[in-house]
Amino acid sequence: MSGYVAILVAELHFPEAGSLKGKRKFVKSAKAQLQNRFGASVAETDHHELWQRSTLTAAFVAREAREADDLAAQADRWLHGQEWEVVSTRVELVAPDDYG
């Protein structure tokens, strides 16, 4: 087995954002924290044109399935503890060999 990837998709609401520029501040912060704290690769994947909404997709790569899943769970808990609202989250665990 060559490792696992946990994919976390989080839809966030930023009630304090009054413009796209304001939203970018929150998105940039969330992405940086997910990268720095959990080693995730993160992208904004939906709601680009909305001021108060964003969907972030983060990938956590680890040797063991449990480790990748734990990283995604920790990141999920972290997102829920921040100043924005978490509308929804979901996690999918993928083994790269599934695609080979």
Quick rundown:
This protein has helices spanning 20-38, 65-80; strands spanning 4-13, 41-46, 53-62, 85-94. With 100 residues, it is an alpha+beta fold.
Structure characterization notes:
This protein is an alpha+beta fold and 100 residues long. Helix content is 35%, strand content 36%. The protein has 2 helices and 4 strands. The chain has helices spanning 20-38, 65-80; strands spanning 4-13, 41-46, 53-62, 85-94. A 4-stranded antiparallel sheet has the order 2-3-1-4, covered by helices on one side. A hairpin with a 6-residue loop joins strand 2 and strand 3 (53-62). Helix 1 (20-38) runs antiparallel to helix 2 (65-80). The longest helix has 19 residues, at 20-38. The model has no long low-confidence stretch (mean pLDDT 93).
Span from first to last CA?
11 Å
Biggest beta-sheet profile: 4 strands, antiparallel
Q: How much strand content do the residues show?
A: 35-45%
Q: What gross morphology would you assign?
A: elongated
**Helix proportion range:** 25-40%
List low-pLDDT spans.
Answer: none
Rg result:
14 Å
Class per helix and strand makeup: alpha+beta
How many beta-strand runs?
A: 4
How are the strands ordered across the major sheet? Answer: 2-3-1-4
Mean pLDDT across every amino acid position: 93
Order of helices and strands: EHEEHE
Tally of alpha and pi helices: 2
